[in-house]
Amino acid sequence: MNQHSAGGSARRERLSMADAGVRKRAEEYTDRFLVLLDPQATDEGMAALRSRAGIARAQRVGGAEAKEAPEALQRGDAVVFDKLGVGVVTAAPDQRQALRTTARDEPAILAAERERVVYASQVTTLPAGATVDYLKGYQEGVEELVNHALRRFEESTVGAARAAAVEEAQATWGLQATRVTESAFSGKGVKVAVLDTGVDVTHPDLADHIGKAISFVPGESVKDVQGHGTHCIGTACGPREPHTLPRYGVAHEAEICAYKVLDDSGSGTDSQILGGIEAAIGHDCRVISMSLGAPTFVGQRFSQVFENVALRALEAGTVIVAAAGNESERPDSIQPVAHPANCPSILAVGALDQNQAVAFFSDAGLNPDGGQVDIAAPGVDVLSAAPQPLMHQRMSGTSMATPHVAGILALIAEAHPQATSAAELKTLLLTKARRLPLASVDVGVGLTQAP
Known about the structure:
Elements: H1 8-11, E1 29-37, H2 42-53, E2 58-61, H3 69-74, E3 78-81, E4 86-90, H4 96-105, E5 109-120, H5 132-137, H6 143-163, H7 173-177, E6 191-196, E7 210-215, H8 228-237, E8 255-260, E9 267-269, H9 270-282, E10 287-290, E11 292-293, H10 304-315, E12 319-323, E13 347-352, E14 375-378, E15 382-385, E16 392-395, H11 398-415, H12 422-432, H13 440-443
Parallel strand pairs: 2-3, 6-8, 6-10, 7-8, 10-12, 12-13, 13-14
Antiparallel strand pairs: 1-4, 1-5, 3-4, 5-9, 5-11, 15-16
């Protein structure tokens, strides 16, 4: 029996959005700091922190060795990611002023900032059979959360009626809209890293193309309990001929590198993301897809650490793509692009619905100093893989838009083997996008298109 059609009509009555049940806060931090080091003087920078601020001696990790970082940080050790030139240090309250002073005065330290907590950028499934009355009676003490869910419920009912007109017998509406179904390319020979909640490594649609599967979450295997990571991986690199139609994957012959940086509840930290980026560069991934983030506010500057990490990744030949975020409640409330997608050198992806309108939850480029949306992709009612036994499910969010772009970058890399630099891949992606009659603050250059 078709694994997703039995409940398909019920699911299409509600948007399945990965972060609706997660109470996210802008500026949620850990007790660690990220330290951007001069790549020519990393030892000098860490030595200055050790001598002047009492920071623990650092363990250096590079490439695939980055998987050792979480345990080291749990022990209270400092870590330096070699390829990124970034240190992660634990600082007690009485050490923080000395750390900031050292970072300001030491030439080998370019920036220092607190480590953020980040979340999956998707929107959660409402319970099967949920009604407005059910939601009104659910958890009386959390009115804000209930009202938030009710607004999304009403929006999704409208979206479901529109979605019914889209024929998906052979391929999802997202693959059709991005012209993936017309492309002669498959992503063969290209490695795509997906930094998320892990993956179902035995999923029959995905198992044959998983090259790496590593967890950067202390105490958790790469197994995807949450479902978000498997869904994103399925969109980016699912098969051309899945066990059950329709086709939902973009770069069906790309090699999947699944790095678990978010825990089973869908949250993680900056250092776990950095570990995944370090490993992806070490494994020669051309594309890194990150459907995750932390809320920002209007006027907030982007992370200097992540901006420089993105620049160093580009120099290594790797493009980073990230979800713009789902904090908006259009038309009443539009929020700025989330961290780390708000970094100028990271491609921020907004979400569109089946009518190629901006999804009501999709964040916008409101901050003039960075924080723009670069491109848009399908992000509403997107069908993709799910951990067994569910096999497939529909989700909505900028999380779902992001792997469409990541997969298309893999197709472009295959189609243009002469484009050896990451900057060339970005340019090809942006110039091939289809222009839309929508504001660039919402969709950037337009709807991503396959070569």
